[in-house]
Amino acid sequence: MTSVEPQQRVISGMRPTGRLHLGHYHGVLSNWTRLQHEYECFFFVADWHALTTHYDDPFSIEENVWDMVIDWLAAGVNPGSATLFIQSRVPEHAELHLLLSMMTPLGWLERVPSYKDQQEKLKEKDLATYGFLGYPLLQSADILMYRAGHVPVGADQVSHVEITREIARRFNHLYGRDPGFEEQAEAAIAKMGKKNAKLYRNLRRRFLEQGDEEALDTARALLKEQQNISIGDRERLYGYIEGGGKVILPEPQSLLTPEARLPGTDGQKMSKSYNNTIFLREEPDSVSQKIRRMQTDPARVRRSDPGDPDKCPVWQLHAIYSDQDTQDWVQHGCRNATIGCLDCKKPLEEKVIEEQKVFRDRAREYENNPDLVRSIMDEGCDRARVQARDTLQEVRRVMGLEYRR
Ligand code: TRP
Ligand code: SF4
């Protein structure tokens, strides 16, 4: 297995749900464009994850995949810096998912909060399926495949990274030991003498069963004092206190995506399901119209009524898009009714359209040349697959599954 530096690696995926909007940009995508310069990044289209909820309508996925990839590229995600790929094009994800499923207790999956929440939320769909229960496990396979230390996700996905850590721990515990590790450890314990052996076993049990950190410290101190055991045995027994062997699949941490809190045109959070979005690639005229019709402080009925920016979603956009001078102008003008809402929206409109011009310019090249997008993804899939094969080969080896060749 090639060695990788988990702390330098980032993996994240997005379900292909259609065209992305400014909420996606100011949340996830701008974060990705930063991370791609600081880490070795793998970003992928989680099309199988989309299938867990859209199995009854899989034909919408294809268009959504390409639209989303063009939005990534438009937003500045750079295929020269990050590896971009499509989950289903790296079928190793399915094999790792299957192998991990063998050792995943059902209760762990049933307890993931999104399992019940989503079933509740998407009542019209039958999500009492095997695939949907396995959603977080498929995500674990996505993550562990790349041995990545960091997973940028929103708050709703943190529990999926958590279960991934538990799966990794269990996997390493089950398969991360050399053959005979246990016997060697037991033989080393015996060399410490009856009294110390008993003490060590007690401390180990307290740590493993109750997570007692004090027991861990005491057990380590005990090993340090031992004169009768070799350095190798001592190392072995250090590892044995915590359960075992070698780290094959490193435990990832979530890297919480800073919340954008971008309001939609109706003042609620911008989201496709509220139909209040401004798309990443949207024609300027349409953007102007949406902003002009945008909800303002309801107390400002007439131009002469003073308003309160804190009660106005337009202000929240100013807070993201405008410089200090403009913000001061809004605050003062709104509270003293010296500007009207349309005046207030004007500079915002310009800023949003200016930002989107960059997106639209980048996107045009890809929109006009679908083959270019296809080949970017071909190349990314190839690169991802090299990593995936490497990990999977090691997984098969430690699980004793190499006999088939
Ligand atoms: N479940 C994630 C979401 O809905 C998408 C996803 C799939 C993902 N696999 C992943 C995110 C692996 C991070 C890492 O947003
Ligand atoms: Fe909102 Fe601006 Fe109108 Fe004040 S002036 S209510 S901040 S749109």
Automatic annotation (TrEMBL):
<keyword id="KW-0436">Ligase</keyword>
<dbReference type="InterPro" id="IPR001412">
    <property type="entry name" value="aa-tRNA-synth_I_CS"/>
</dbReference>
<keyword id="KW-0030">Aminoacyl-tRNA synthetase</keyword>
<dbReference type="GO" id="GO:0006436">
    <property type="term" value="P:tryptophanyl-tRNA aminoacylation"/>
</dbReference>
<dbReference type="InterPro" id="IPR050203">
    <property type="entry name" value="Trp-tRNA_synthetase"/>
</dbReference>
<dbReference type="Pfam" id="PF00579">
    <property type="entry name" value="tRNA-synt_1b"/>
</dbReference>
<protein>
    <recommendedName>
        <fullName>Tryptophan--tRNA ligase</fullName>
        <ecNumber>6.1.1.2</ecNumber>
    </recommendedName>
</protein>
<comment type="similarity">
    <text>Belongs to the class-I aminoacyl-tRNA synthetase family.</text>
</comment>
<dbReference type="GO" id="GO:0005829">
    <property type="term" value="C:cytosol"/>
</dbReference>
<dbReference type="InterPro" id="IPR014729">
    <property type="entry name" value="Rossmann-like_a/b/a_fold"/>
</dbReference>
<dbReference type="GO" id="GO:0004830">
    <property type="term" value="F:tryptophan-tRNA ligase activity"/>
</dbReference>
<keyword id="KW-0547">Nucleotide-binding</keyword>
<dbReference type="GO" id="GO:0005524">
    <property type="term" value="F:ATP binding"/>
</dbReference>
<dbReference type="InterPro" id="IPR002305">
    <property type="entry name" value="aa-tRNA-synth_Ic"/>
</dbReference>
<dbReference type="InterPro" id="IPR002306">
    <property type="entry name" value="Trp-tRNA-ligase"/>
</dbReference>
<keyword id="KW-0067">ATP-binding</keyword>
<keyword id="KW-0648">Protein biosynthesis</keyword>
